[in-house]
Amino acid sequence: MKAKWQQELLKMSIWLISEIFINLSGLDTLADYGEFTLQHKINLLENSSHVIAVLLSTEQNLVITRLV
C-alpha cells in the first residue's frame, strides 16, 4: 500500500514540475492561443454555414416565387 502511495506522489510531483516548467517557458500561453484560434475558426465555419443555409433557402424561395 505504501508503494502505491509513493508512486502516486511521484506522478503528482512530476506533473507539478512539468506544469511549472511549461508555464515558465511560455508554452502554456502558446497552447492557449492555439486553442483560441482553432475555436475562432470553428465559430467562423459555423456562422458561414448558417449564412449559406439562409442564402440557399432564400434562393429557393425566389425560384418558387418566380415560378408562380
Order of helices and strands: HH
Give the count of helical stretches. 2
The portion of residues assigned to helices is over 70%
Q: Taking Cα atoms only, what radius of gyration do you get, to the nearest Å? A: 26 Å
Termini separation: 81 Å
- Globally, the shape reads elongated
Describe this structure in words.
- It is built from 2 helices and no strands.
- It has one domain.
- With 68 residues, it is mostly helical.
- The longest helix is centred in the C-terminal third of the chain and has 41 residues, at 27-67.
- Helix content is 96%, strand content 0%.
- It is elongated, with a radius of gyration of 26 Å.
Summarize the structure.
The chain contains 2 helices and no strands. It is an all-alpha fold and 68 residues long.
Task: Lay out the secondary structure.
Elements: H1 2-25, H2 27-67
List the keywords:
single chain; 68 residues; mainly alpha; 2 helices; 96% helix; 0% strand; disordered C terminus
